[in-house]
Amino acid sequence: MWQPHVFVVLFGLLSLYGKGADCQHPGYTLNAHRLVWVASGLCVEIPCTFTVPAGSTLSTRVTGIWKRKGTPDIVVASTEASMVSEGTKGRFTLTGKVQEGDCSFSISNAQPADQGEYEFRIEDGSDGYSYSQYRLSVSVTDSPSNKIKVSDLPEPTISPGGELIAGKPITLTCTAHPAPQGCKGNITWGGRIKMTKLYNYKQEDQAGKSIISFTPSQREHNSPLTCTVTYSGVSTNSSITLKVQYSPSIKIRVSGYNGTYENKSLTITEGDSVNISCYVKSRPMADISCGEGQGYNVIKAPRERVLVLQNVSVADGVTYTCLARNTHGSVSETVSVTVEYAPRSSFISNCTSEGCRVEAIEGTSLSLLCSAESNPPANLSWAKTGQNSTDPLNSSSGRLDVSHVTTDNGGDYMCRARNKHGNSTVSITVVILYAPRGLTFNYCAVNGCFVEGNSSVKVQEGNSLYLRCDADGNPVANVSWVKQMQNGTITQISLTAQLNVTNVTAEHGGNYMCQTINRIGNTSKSISVVVIKTLTKDKIHLEGFMFGGIFVLLLAAITAVLVMRYKKKRRPPEEVEGSQRSPPNNYEVVYANIKRKTREPNMDPSPPNEGESPDKDLQYVTLDFSKLKPKSSPEPQETLYTEVKRK
């Protein structure tokens, strides 16, 4: 067992304490052993105090300096580190508080070169004083029996212990216990982490201890921290494992799908499945909430929640939130799910149901707007049924515009919505409305039905008359007939396109107008009806008598012509010529060609004699009616047409 008295540094019993016998500078005294022995490689603590004259005060900026006398002097220890020689830096330490009159210093890992005389000096601003009359001597001895063994070294102590909290600054102190010889070792910090990378890291070394401060974070949790004390080349250490408490942090993981996930946004296709994992790191363990109680399928694990979405629909395209909370705070992460699908629910703004129709008035403008529910948005195109669907109509953003509507624009149109997932179509029928036009008349009488080409129609009194008026219009026009009366008034006589008269009378003659109208406009056209009167029985008898009289007269005239012709043949030629040249001035020449209209049944036709002249059947007669007494003129009557046949 190591015996303390063997390794105790001997402060020679014959060493003298300076008592200030040399009083050249009253009040400046220094108390320390005049002679100090230390074994090579070991350490020694040298107690020392000093005084200054009464009435003098040392400031906090006072500098203490220990020098080893020589040529030149070497500063071995000082409160001003920049003044210390490189050969002694780290081994000589001025451990006393100079402003309080303490000039103690220590030597570690003593070297033979450390042997010599040492002198203390103070400097306070422009004032300074060297205690040269109080020099002390250090003697370094080399004895193997004085070496320190590792087993003899006490381990340093790291304090305080316990849990650290992320984000909260902490101060740790490593205290080196004195070696058996009474010296303190050199203290260093280390471990798996680099001390200089600790947040807000600071280190302060004092006699026998080292103090570090930093702000721990989550990454330092479970990291080892070691304090090492070195005594004259022999080291001992002590380690702790940092236990850091921290608020939750969340990591989102997505698996089991054929989509994309970036920037907290997940895009999948309708019908697919996906697992969204919310993994939480925290200390202590956090409470995790991820859609529980909202009807979602959630798998629970100690530090994780997995949201399972199967056969996703558009309704699943929402934002999901994972929330974690412990005593040090809470955090949440969101995942925005976007569900893509083929176009559907296509509709046209002008209607709301499949197979709808829209009406447009000829000459106006028409606009059809098509839209579809889809993700991503669909490309919209228009085509007219019956045309090549690969040659779409000009349209923009699903809008089909016609600036001037004509009847050619009527028909069925189809809007097609297409994206990368599929397509859908919706149809609409465009109906063009226009005012009535192209009026035509059809009429039927006893002699048949005709399409009217003129502006009048003739019908015999007593017969039936059918008139029809047709017009091209959309919607179908309402047709009516009106008649212009003799007094100028207009009378409506039919509310339909047909005008039927079963027994035509003279009153039915006149001007008729067909009027057509629909909600777009109206038009009209006139036709004149001429009624031909039919003879009564009395009139027929009278007319027959008159015709018979005329016929008798004509027959007499023909006979006279024949007689005169016969006589003419017997008259000398010159008489005939004279008579032909000088016809009576008071007679009109009447030419008649009399033919038998009907032939007696018992009369057989016989060819003419070959000797007869072909002109024999043509006779000329001259009648003079100038001597007849004129009859009184009857009242003017309408023209009557009849046909008289011989019995």
Automatic annotation (TrEMBL):
<feature type="transmembrane region" description="Helical">
    <location>
        <begin position="544"/>
        <end position="564"/>
    </location>
</feature>
<dbReference type="InterPro" id="IPR003599">
    <property type="entry name" value="Ig_sub"/>
</dbReference>
<feature type="domain" description="Ig-like">
    <location>
        <begin position="436"/>
        <end position="528"/>
    </location>
</feature>
<dbReference type="Pfam" id="PF07679">
    <property type="entry name" value="I-set"/>
</dbReference>
<keyword id="KW-0130">Cell adhesion</keyword>
<dbReference type="Pfam" id="PF13895">
    <property type="entry name" value="Ig_2"/>
</dbReference>
<keyword id="KW-1133">Transmembrane helix</keyword>
<dbReference type="InterPro" id="IPR036179">
    <property type="entry name" value="Ig-like_dom_sf"/>
</dbReference>
<dbReference type="InterPro" id="IPR003598">
    <property type="entry name" value="Ig_sub2"/>
</dbReference>
<feature type="domain" description="Ig-like">
    <location>
        <begin position="343"/>
        <end position="431"/>
    </location>
</feature>
<feature type="domain" description="Ig-like">
    <location>
        <begin position="248"/>
        <end position="338"/>
    </location>
</feature>
<feature type="domain" description="Ig-like">
    <location>
        <begin position="26"/>
        <end position="137"/>
    </location>
</feature>
<keyword id="KW-0472">Membrane</keyword>
<dbReference type="Pfam" id="PF13927">
    <property type="entry name" value="Ig_3"/>
</dbReference>
<comment type="similarity">
    <text>Belongs to the immunoglobulin superfamily. SIGLEC (sialic acid binding Ig-like lectin) family.</text>
</comment>
<dbReference type="InterPro" id="IPR013098">
    <property type="entry name" value="Ig_I-set"/>
</dbReference>
<protein>
    <submittedName>
        <fullName>Sialic acid-binding Ig-like lectin like 2</fullName>
    </submittedName>
</protein>
<dbReference type="GO" id="GO:0016020">
    <property type="term" value="C:membrane"/>
</dbReference>
<keyword id="KW-0430">Lectin</keyword>
<dbReference type="GO" id="GO:0007155">
    <property type="term" value="P:cell adhesion"/>
</dbReference>
<keyword id="KW-0812">Transmembrane</keyword>
<dbReference type="InterPro" id="IPR051036">
    <property type="entry name" value="SIGLEC"/>
</dbReference>
<dbReference type="GO" id="GO:0030246">
    <property type="term" value="F:carbohydrate binding"/>
</dbReference>
<feature type="signal peptide">
    <location>
        <begin position="1"/>
        <end position="20"/>
    </location>
</feature>
<feature type="domain" description="Ig-like">
    <location>
        <begin position="154"/>
        <end position="241"/>
    </location>
</feature>
<feature type="region of interest" description="Disordered">
    <location>
        <begin position="570"/>
        <end position="647"/>
    </location>
</feature>
<dbReference type="Pfam" id="PF07686">
    <property type="entry name" value="V-set"/>
</dbReference>
<dbReference type="InterPro" id="IPR013783">
    <property type="entry name" value="Ig-like_fold"/>
</dbReference>
<keyword id="KW-0732">Signal</keyword>
<dbReference type="InterPro" id="IPR013106">
    <property type="entry name" value="Ig_V-set"/>
</dbReference>
<dbReference type="InterPro" id="IPR007110">
    <property type="entry name" value="Ig-like_dom"/>
</dbReference>
